[in-house]
Amino acid sequence: MREIAVEKKVLGANDAVAARNRRVFAEKGAYVINMISSPGTGKTTTLEATLGRLVASGLSVAVIEGDVQTRNDADRVEATGVPVEAVITGGACHLDAQMVGKAYSNLLPKLPETLDLLIVENVGNLVCPSAYDVGEDEKVALVSVTEGEDKPLKYPSLFNAANTCLVTKIDLLPHLDFDFNLLVRNIKSINPNASVFPISAKTGEGMEAWISYLGGRCAKDAG
Ligand SMILES: Nc1nc2c(ncn2[C@@H]2O[C@H](COP(=O)(O)OP(=O)(O)O)[C@@H](O)[C@H]2O)c(=O)[nH]1
Ligand SMILES: [Mg+2]
């Protein structure tokens, strides 16, 4: 009982900071997504492929990169030319609203007057990040075709929290015994409202639909 009470208090305090972040992001005009998956699903690779296409389409984008250790992912994103701020949690398995708010303040001097899209790459973990609102407009879940069709059933909290789901590494499908339709059925059994985008950051397959979705969300946010 005491554990539940403490958890509620922590999440309540987090929600207050998340609400403040949301106001600050809105002042900048930014649509904000929070990308969540297990380590190795392809968040950073998808991000690299996404950023080039978004910038080419004229959108202004910035990134907050969460990791337990190292600036590796932030360096990969920095190489694309998009403003990025790293959050190294030093052990914590998720980003919270406070960490993201602080990272955004550090990022602010590098940002244009208005920003179309802020992308947060969360710490690789299928459980903890789904419980924390960081002030995003939506959580985006990623699951790769090498992880097994049952992951939405085993980790329902994330798939419940995310209405958009990217199925990554579809270029590998010919080499795998993987039932794509079963994965989609499992995602929808947890969240009937989920939109599923099959993508390959390596070959570019499916990227157009994903980019067009993001562009639409940014335009809606600005309008
Ligand atoms: N074949 C294939 N490999 C991918 C794809 N996306 C990512 N990877 C590989 O998956 C591994 C983990 O990718 P990374 O983006 O670092 O995952 P993260 O930990 O979720 O950020 C790397 O070896 C990537 O090259 C993809 O679309 N196709
Ligand atoms: Mg990464």
What does this structure look like?
This protein has 223 residues and is of the alpha/beta class. The chain has a single domain (2-222), classed as Rossmann fold (3-Layer(aba) Sandwich), CATH 3.40.50.300. The protein contains 8 helices and 7 strands. The protein has helices spanning 2-28, 43-56, 72-78, 97-107, 151-154, 156-161, 180-190, 207-222; strands at residues 31-36, 61-67, 84-88, 117-121, 138-144, 162-168, 195-198. Guanosine-5'-diphosphate is lined by residues 37, 39-45, 124, 168-169, 171-172, 200-202.
Poorly predicted runs of 5 or more residues: none
Mean pLDDT: 95
Shape: globular
**Relevant CATH superfamily:** P-loop containing nucleotide triphosphate hydrolases
Helix content percent band: 40-55%
Between the first and last Cα atoms, what is the distance in angstroms? 45 Å
Bound molecules: guanosine-5'-diphosphate, magnesium ion
SSE string: HEHEHEHEEHHEHEH
Structural class: alpha/beta
Rg computed from alpha carbons, rounded to a whole number of angstroms: 17 Å
The number of helical elements comes to: 8
CATH topology, which one? Rossmann fold
List the topology elements.
Layout: H1 2-28, E1 31-36, H2 43-56, E2 61-67, H3 72-78, E3 84-88, H4 97-107, E4 117-121, E5 138-144, H5 151-154, H6 156-161, E6 162-168, H7 180-190, E7 195-198, H8 207-222
Parallel strand pairs: 1-4, 1-5, 2-3, 2-4, 5-6, 6-7
The structure holds guanosine-5'-diphosphate (GDP) and magnesium ion (MG).
